[in-house]
Write the structure tokens for this entry.
Amino acid sequence: MKIILTAVDALYNWARSNSLWPLTFATSCCGIEMISTSAATFDIARFGAEVFRASPRQADLMITAGTITHKMAPAMVQLYEQMPEPKYVIAMGACCVTGGMYENDSYSVVRGIDRLIPVDVYLPGCPPRPEALLDAIIKLQEKIKTESLMQRRKYLEAHKPKVIYSDDKNCEVLLPHPEIEVIHWGVQKTGYDKSNDKTEVESA
Amino acid sequence: MPEAMNLVIDEKYGVKFLDKTSDNVEVIEVKPDMLVETTTYLKMNKDTRFDVLLSVSGVDKSPYFEVVYHLYSTVFNKKLILKAVLNKNCPEIESISSVYSAANWHERETYDLFGINFQNHPDLERILLPGDWKGHPLRKDYVNNDERLSWNER
């Protein structure tokens, strides 16, 4: 059984790591480097990742190229949740890793997207060169090649967002690491049916 | 054009000549309650024809607020800077979006970041920050103490 699984893993990982389809998601200047990476000079197609998808439903890699603000955060989390499993995230640029030059006293910038979604590869730089992005993709491919199907399942369980409610009227979401993360969903309060969610939380 | 014009509108609208920038753009101070009349005059008069509004911005000079309007005349290739001083406790000024439609979003931005109320504005809501944001972040005395954002502290 184990031998079969290992063989399937190897095939599965080989196929997956060599056809990473990134999501077209660029919020600021890192996006220019990402475009340049996909253009002829650097040619991301050499690593099987040239198909930039405009829809999250067809993508399995999110390169968060650029600053994420409070207003953008709900959109980013929603895009991440819309991507089908298995999915990976490269936090590209200093802003996505720690908040970058906005880390000190900005009122609007999220200080590192790992406070919102799980990150696989951190890529610092302001902005990083296209070679660096290619290096990050190679590192991600190496990581994917070490995965096994069973472990991935555990990983998925750990990363399911859970909806909770506090006394505050504003909608809040508790994310994978319950000790710190509470998302402010900004204006996107509509569409929640609170009565259904509450029963889920109580049963959990 | 601007120099001659100043003489005309000095008495009529109570404007005050303040300064000249290094590239010869005149800076004049307007009365907040005469703003719409002054800009309408500057736009419609055939000797001035300031037909483009380049920007509306706010300045927090700790004791008071200032709203700065940059006008441009495509006919005479001239720029003009208008400044209006507002009370810090109730910063209110008439909207000029009826004169220049470009002012609409600029005024919303100024409202968003400085909390300056533009009266008779068609849709004065936040434009950059989320709709339920508390406070106006570019004010000097702004402190971000929103509990909902505690997850994002350093």
In short: The longest strand of chain A covers residues 61-65. Helices of chain A lie at 2-17, 30-38, 73-82, 94-97, 130-145, 149-158, 194-203.
